[in-house]
Design brief:
With 111 residues, this protein is of the alpha+beta class. It is 29% helix and 23% strand. The longest helix has 10 residues.
């Protein structure tokens, strides 16, 4: 269920139950970050626009950019994507996405 006032309204008092939390450990596996991105897909679309987010590991990248958050979208019936965040760990990559910290506060998650 999408919250219509998520972008401009007040923060939610607590995280919706269908959104999994990727945090709790010092190092979070990419699968937990992907589970968060998937579970919060409707809220992410309401906040950021019509993008689907995924985390990928780039083995040829320098260590500080090992993980990347890609935003995938359709343009003229073709899938396109851009890198929206990078980091040394999956959680660093997630938190480097522009406005992700603010989004997480809006859905009731402390960052």
């Amino acid at each position: 269920m999408t919250t219509p006032d998520l972008l401009f309204g007040p923060p939610l008092p607590r995280r919706p139950s269908h959104i999994s939390s990727p945090f709790g450990l010092m190092y979070v596996h990419a699968s937990r970050v992907q589970a968060f991105l998937t579970s919060a897909s409707e809220e992410l679309k309401a906040y950021f626009g019509d993008y689907n987010y995924m985390i990928l590991e780039n083995p040829r990248a320098p260590r500080r950019y090992k993980y990347e958050i890609h935003a995938v979208y359709m343009l003229h019936s073709e899938y396109c994507s851009f890198v929206d965040g990078r980091g040394r760990t999956p959680s660093e990559a997630l938190l480097s996405v522009n406005q992700m910290r603010n989004f997480m506060r809006k859905i009731g998650m402390s960052v």
